[in-house]
Design brief:
This protein is an alpha+beta fold. It has helices at residues 2-13, 31-52; strands spanning 16-21, 56-64, 67-69. Helix 1 (2-13) packs parallel to helix 2.
């Protein structure tokens, strides 16, 4: 779902948005966690567009020391 969020933004804004994800499906505990990650990325992208005047954004999802990170 994040790729579907990122791609239109990349095309319409001209911002270089890169998405790196090393999480596996089983790393996301439940649908609420998945929804929360989606909403956090959505808010980060909106803030980058509106307030930061960003020209590039890197979104990285992964797992380190047994904990998911964004």
């Amino acid at each position: 779902a994040l790729k579907e969020l990122i791609e239109p933004l990349r095309k319409s804004s001209g911002i270089d948005v890169r998405f790196e994800c090393t999480l596996q499906r089983e790393d996301i505990e439940n649908s609420q966690t998945e929804l929360n990650l989606f909403r956090m990325v959505q808010e980060m992208l909106n803030n980058s567009l509106k307030h930061a005047e960003a020209t590039e954004v890197l979104i990285r999802l992964g797992k380190e020391n047994g904990k998911n990170y964004l």
